[in-house]
Amino acid sequence: MERIAIYPGSFDPVTNGHLDIVERGCTLFDKVIVAILHNPAKHSCFTVDERKEFLEISLKDIGNIEIDSFGGLLVDYAERRKATAILRGMRAVSDFEYEFQLALMNRRLKRNIQTVFLMTGLRWIFTSSSIIKEAASFGGDVADMVPPIVNQRLKERFGTGGKSS
Ligand code: PNS
Questions:
Q1: Which of 12, 71, 115, 151 has the smallest C-beta neighbourhood within 10 Å, fewest atoms?
Q2: Ligand 1 atom with minimal separation from the 37 CA
Q3: Given the CA of residue 73, which atom of ligand 1 is nearest to it?
Q4: 102 in ligand 1 pocket by Cβ < 6 Å?
Q5: pTM as predicted
Q6: Are 86 and 5 a contacting pair, CB within 8 Å?
Q7: What residues pair up with 36 in beta bridges, in sequence order?
Q8: pLDDT (tens digit per residue) in 53-88
Q9: CA dist list (Å): 68 to 10, 35, 47, 56, 134
Q10: Which residues are catalytic?
């Protein structure tokens, strides 16, 4: 049986920390589905289509990956996609409480789906999409924290280089 994991997230936008987790996750599973949460109630910087495009460009060299989006409960989506695992990255201790709650709730909802945590690479321990967006919005250089396509689009979005969108 194919071992499929879902790597869910907002990915608004994808960072090098996310890429590190997904690349390592791909060595553990036959297939990893990177699943972007579609949440109309939450204000996002980039649309789901833009976030999908960034992920597709950044992960184009990895074979056993699919990029998708989902709404509703993660465990229902995982079941529909025949996944048996949810992959999550864990950064500093500050992530632990939320991740623990999420994993326990998901386990309560569907006991046959396991959450697998990978420790974030040391280089990315303090990077997050929100802090990167904040820095970029004030013209800060985030080039070494995000894939090139994201760096370019952040500059366009915040008017710190190139055309605005
Ligand atoms: O990148 P994020 O924002 O930390 O990802 C959070 C995500 C998408 C994994 C989480 O919000 C999620 O799974 N949302 C879908 C609804 C759901 O199933 N919530 C958990 C059980 S209530």
A1: 71
A2: 8
A3: 18
A4: yes
A5: 0.95
A6: yes
A7: 9, 69
A8: 999 999 999 999 999 999 999 999 999 999 999 999
A9: 12, 5, 13, 10, 26
A10: 18, 42, 91, 129
Q: What angle do CA 54, 23, 165 make, to 5 degrees?
A: 10
How far is Cα 127 from Cα 124, in angstroms, rounded to an integer?
A: 5
Residues in the chain: 165
Task: Record the tokens describing residue 87, joined without a space.
Answer: 């992959």
Q: How far apart are CA 4 and CA 12, in angstroms?
A: 23
Whether the CB of 73 sits within 6 Å of ligand 1:
yes
Predicted confidence (pLDDT) per residue in 118-133, tens digit: 999 999 998 999 999 9
What's the CA-to-centroid distance between 159 and ligand 1, angstroms? 30
- Burial class for 58, CB neighbours closer than 10 Å (0-12, 13-18, 19+): buried
96, HSE (Cβ side, Cα atoms, 13 Å): 3
